[in-house]
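Section 5.1 Outputs to date
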Amino acid sequence: MGPLSGFTIVEIAGIGPGPFCCMLLSDMGAKVIRVDRKQSGHWRPVPGINRGRLSIQVDLKQPAGVETVLRLVEHADALTEGFRPGVMERLGLGPEVCLKRNKRLVYGRITGWGQDGPLAQTAGHDINYIALTGALHGIGLASEPVPPLNLIGDYGGGGMLLAFGLVCALLEARSSGQGQVVDAAMTDGSALLMAAIYGLKANGGWTNQRQTNLLDGGAHFYGVYECADGKWLSIGSIEPQFYALLREQADLPEVEFDAQMDKSAWPDLRARLAAVFKNKTRDQWQVLMEGTDVCFAPVLDLDEAPQHPHNRARETFVEMDGAVQPAPAPRFSRTPASIQSGLTEPGSATDLILAEAGFAVEEIAELRETSVI
């Protein structure tokens, strides 16, 4: 029923941003076939980002295994892979080979540094990619940058951008009849996510010193504060009318608070506001401010967030495979997204996938006898 229903994606199994991209596509209705490698150890996919797949297990070190994947590619709309540049080519599954089999194929590649450039063959992780683009420098305390989980490089600038690129290329292929390669680099993606911040800096509205800016904890009216019970709350009272309401709810009549946008006053006002918020528990502040235009929210942990009434009302989280996980997003009025299935064991749909791709019963049996599948 989802908006991508009817599209078939071949996912060469990997970790991190690649599976996240394919989770998004599956939630939107695409049929995602995950090609798991045969291995001696037992690997179980991670709940959430590996949901909604059909899995085939193939030995890519055997020519017959490579040929098996190429036959799947003939029936697919897109393929995704997340290896270092050149690995898929050495396997015999590079874009040139795949596009010869299927000229309409969209070939999605996700790496940290991109397919070319001086660092293309270098190992790295999310923290390195966002460090190179200025994103990490801008996040954290005045004294040191703080890693923002791996949300910016891996998932926002990586997997989500790859999903966007794939859908763009799939739309183009419908009119042109031709596929192409989508090169999604996490450095490119994390830089793109910083577009507004670079724009503010160009206009003189942002400095390189952390916690001196509007959105990095410098402003007393935009940040997090500890409460009497050791829990935290968030405030984002930027607009004058919201700031006035913050002053009313937090009882801040002092004339010093009139100078909302006086950056020189921010450190002192932040300290004074911090002392005020320490006078009540987070729940007490929640009763007072939640649902108003203060721009308030409690800082919830991973156990609390799924239980919040707003998240429950919108069914923002679901439970599947014994794990709480985010529900599909965004929402569609006519073609709703949905989780197609939970976790699938590697190889659990091998015969079904091959049969749907036109493999004869005898061919499947031979592939199994020769340990290709």
